[in-house]
Amino acid sequence: MPDSNQPRRFHFGVFEANEATAELRRKGVRVKLNAQPFQLLIFLLEHPGEILTRDQIARHLWPAETFVDFDHGVNSGINRIREALGDTASNPRFVETLARRGYRFIAPVRLVTDEISNSAPDSAPLTTSILATAEELPRASHTVTRSLFVSLQLMYVGFYVGALANLPEIADLLSPLAHASTVFAILIATAAALIPVRAFALTGALLHPPEVRTKLLRLWPFLLPCDILWSLAPFLLLHHINFGFAIACMPLLVYSPFAQRSLILMGAAEH
What we know:
Elements: E1 8-12, E2 15-18, E3 23-26, E4 29-31, H1 35-46, E5 51-52, H2 54-61, H3 70-85, E6 95-98, E7 102-105, E8 110-113, H4 114-119, H5 126-129, H6 142-165, H7 167-174, H8 180-207, H9 212-229, H10 243-265
């Protein structure tokens, strides 16, 4: 466990909040944030994923004998944080407002102490070192992101249903392979299992149930290998298309799961 007396640095996306220097930086460049909003940001970062009520925030920022307009102070602090992070209340990537309940920091947070950082190189997890983070993605309207996300889900449903509806043709196509029966069984199993998964993604994007964004992001690592496997789907149509066209389609399908993740981060499954 890190020593609680060590100065802490909180990493989230391309941002770093340094508790020792009271500085917020974006890719190493300092972002202006006054002292009190910075204290509020640190309080949120200390409790990622937790709902912090206005009373909790007020008690943390102001001593009991202080007489201020707490509601105005909390609102102002949250607004200053959102401005510094380029965040919005309607499509939050960092600070989420829960009506009549409080606020919650929703982005992944990584805590680093100076002691740890001096003894080992800084190694960000995959989601922050290779894959795009929410703040690195362009802003787009909810209608566009949802339409693209829904279209991709329908595309996969079409693949699964089409494959299951043409099993004799596909069995004939796979017959020259050394392990044709195994490949055929995997195709049937994954197609049947993934149809309800795509139905969940579709209803999530269209109906916006609670926490659907988080659930879809948690589901994504498990869908990734399946989507990579189904990037070979064009080759199941070799009785109808030529080999070159199938090869041309495959790279686009390999990119598809990463596009879906980006669309989720851009708000495809949110109001």
